[in-house]
Predict the structure.
Amino acid sequence: MTRFIIKRLASMVLVLFAVSVITFLIFNVIPNGDPAVRMAGKQPTETQVQAIREEWGFDKPIYVQYATTMKLLFTGQMVSYFSQLNVVEEIWKGVPRTFALAIGAAILWMIFAIALGLWSAMRAGGISDNLLNVFALIGISMPVFWLGALMNQYLGFELSNVLGFELFPNGGYVEFSESPWQWFHHLILPWIALSVLFIGFYSRVLRANIIETMDEDYVRTARAKGLSDRRVLLHHVLRNSLIPVVTLWGLDFAVVIGGGAILTETVFNLQGVGQYAADAIGQLDQPPILAVTMFGAFFVVFFNTVIDIVYAALDPRIRLEAGDSA
Amino acid sequence: MGEPLLTVSDLRVSFRTEGGLVQAVDGVSFDLDRGEVLSIVGESGCGKSVMAMTLMGLTASRNASISGSIRLGETEIVGADDDSLRSIRGERMAMIFQNPMSSLNPVQRIGDQIVEQIRAHRDVSKSEAMERAVYLLNAVGVPDAKARARAYPHEFSGGMRQRAMIAMALSLDPEVLIADEPTTALDVTIQAQIIDLLMELNREMGLAVILITHDLGVVAEIANRVAVMYAGQLVEEASLDGLFYDPLHPYSWGLLGSVPRVDGERPKRLAQIKGQPPSLIDPPKGCRFRERCPHAFEACEGPVALEPRAGDPGHPDRCLLPVEAKRDLRKLDSGRIGLEEAGAGS
Amino acid sequence: MNTAADRAESDLQEFDSPPAVTGGGEAGIGPWRLAARRMRRRRGALAFGLIFVVLVAVCLLAPVYADLVAGSGPYENHLTDQVTVDGQSVNVVGYDGIPIGPTWQGEFLLGADGNGRDVAVRLLYGGRNSLLIGIASAIITTILGLIVGLLAGYFRGWTDSVLSRLMDILWAFPVILLGIALGTSLALGGLALGPIDISGGSLAIPIFVIAIIYVPYLARPIRGEVLSLREKEFVEAARAQGMGSLRLIASEILPNVLSTALVFFPLLVANAILLEAALSFLGAGVQPPEPSWGTMIDEGVQRIITAPALAIVPGVMLVLTVLALNVFGEAVRESLDPKAKVRIEH
Ligand SMILES: Nc1ncnc2c1ncn2[C@@H]1O[C@H](COP(=O)(O)OP(=O)(O)OP(=O)(O)O)[C@@H](O)[C@H]1O
Ligand SMILES: [Mg+2]
């Protein structure tokens, strides 16, 4: 197990390095034109560009440029030339908001996906299954920013006007420390909006897994044992069907927490990490985007490693393999 | 022997599929007595597993329809509700399967899987059930049972898994054990051990066994009676000796074709017979073996019932040839229907 | 979706693969014919496929609509113009800055946007762009994904290592962040790829960006299939005959992975359209004044309080298009390869 963890961590470091190189290439090498000009944003002055060129070492060889970029990022010195704010500090400000959104949504979508997936699989081919399939397909076809904007407008704004009180607030974020209830209240709509797509997707995956698992020999065994249908379903079918879904869930959770919920954050004005990057796009303000991209990919890679390790600890089969190699 | 333990009459199972209605079991009847070992043999796809599953009330997919009757003592299984089926499964009738690799839940400990079955039927504590599980594992020959009960299936070898399956099946002292090709997936030496174990259980506990197998050697070793199944129907039923020394149906001759008579060599698996069994979707009227049978004549296109044609009520078959003709023909081609061709292929 | 035929079909779907029906009728049919037959039965899905085709056709007719019906191009401002509705003359954009809503007549059928441009006209032109980006990038993704998957799977060794690691790394980036990163970094200066020179505002930028992002989603499963295909007998045989690697890939392996590519294609288009919309919404995709459904939703959301139609209309078109592709794509998947696991993020 220890050896498995070490091996896994080593490969993580390699991937992180590769990710940083790719990010560097995307921003500083692949595009046409002077990177210093791009870094400066939409309307740079000549002195600004000159200063950036020196700071980022754009007149130096490419590996020096890479090293300088990484140094700027990891020592927390990178600034946005548009807002003059420190990029890393701004990202840190967004982190709790992004986490709150991601964690709540991940729980919500998993609960609903399990409930709906089970329901459909139990009634496979029936009317309610077909209906859920239609809803799921609509859910995965819905752009989250459009759905979010409509929810915000109609459930957050118009509905409050009609009711005379705020059933749902119209966007924004309240610190948990300020008011736990307001915090929760402001996150309800974003959680739902972000979950819709995943519920649609996961419930279908789970439904398919359940139906597939029901044909497994060990499920037949479980039924032959005289267990109740409920017990067969929950202890044998669901448990095994969930294993691949939980993996998916870990991956998607990593993406969402790594800034992938940028659209939801933006429509509901949550000011999370993703929105920080989104707000920089209008000015083509590159440093925030570079930093958030790297942050997101790092998080995904890191989280995948954690999942692998937790998985090895949980799944007896993987544990055995790990034990063999130790 | 009195009342049979299990009475199956005119059992029919069909499946709706994309290609049409699959008549997997088509009018099967037989009795099983206490302490008896009934072996069911037949080519792949002839409906043995479907029949076995139906006996347990496990053929529940929505595309299946079942008719006929399966009586276990006083209880009717066909059409029984879930609760009464549950009280039979595991408790009075248990089943072990062909593939022990996949028949145990991969993420549950072996001991827990046995405990789960015991506690589904008996109101006992976890530790009492576990004690019994360890006792059973020990009894079926799992060494160091106490520790091994905590293992996961993938930590067991195939033979050990099948032993664990048997321990599980026996955990509530069932009256009938249905074993669907219990040794097919195992090494030869392990096969013999498992069969010995089953024999021992049969003798010592008086357990009635329905054994589905392709292995005539196993049949010869353990069975009291044999039923030969073809395309969803029984074509011959006989005592062990009856089938081996006086097989009445040409299909049985074919199956037995590879069993050497005098040289005493160990019997092999079922012989291959030239040609394909008929589709179970719209099977031919009359004798289903007709198209592959070198002795078929016009009457074979008419109805053929399973009847004691040779006079022995314990030895019915489904072939219309006169008994004497059967015995002669059998001798003539040494019962080797299509074997020359099949032998070349295998 | 809910016709009886559909329901019966999905009833059967789960049961169409258990043990092959012996001698059944489907054996002789090739996989493509079988898929086509299954596809034909899925009327609902075909209807959605048709919806997509109609949407494409309508969007292609954008210039005709602009000239003949609306009398206004996609970029034309009518900020100070007036339009006659029900005999009354109305400002296209009111003094309060609120544009006119749907008139349900030729001019400004769906109203005007904040710049006094005809929404219906822009909707069609925007659709043309969105569809162009979706389809073009899906084609490029398919080609690149096939190349990468085939090379990595066939040559294995370091080719595989390099390509697979590259795919892993691309995969590590959250799709939308990678899109923004590439979209913004290319938006200013454009891209010079050898002889190809793409300028910053060009539609080719989002096409290229989206195409690259989705390559790993296709390349990975293709690679997996190729890995097992290359061990198959027919490939071994071709290799033994001295067929060159590239010819072998093209003639023996490629045809066998095409069904996977086909399964992915509609879903790739759907996700590419969604990603285009998301990037454009954020300002990192199609650059104004060029319309696309994403940019239109972006503009609409900014005016959602006073003119909600501006956000709703392009969104509905987007959802309808993507839904049509998803429904159709799901049916293609189930017809061609029911077991395929397809996963694409957006
Ligand atoms: N759920 C099902 N739906 C449709 N057809 C089925 C189903 N289950 C079994 N069949 C069909 O029923 C027939 C009998 O299958 P069965 O598994 O009983 O054969 P078998 O005699 O056990 O063969 P083997 O020796 O290979 O185990 C086969 O043709 C099979 O295709
Ligand atoms: Mg079987």
The domain at 125-315 of chain C is CATH 1.10.3720.10 (MetI-like fold). Chain C touches chain A through 61 residues (CB under 8 Å). Chain C has a mean pLDDT of 83. The radius of gyration of chain C is 24 Å.
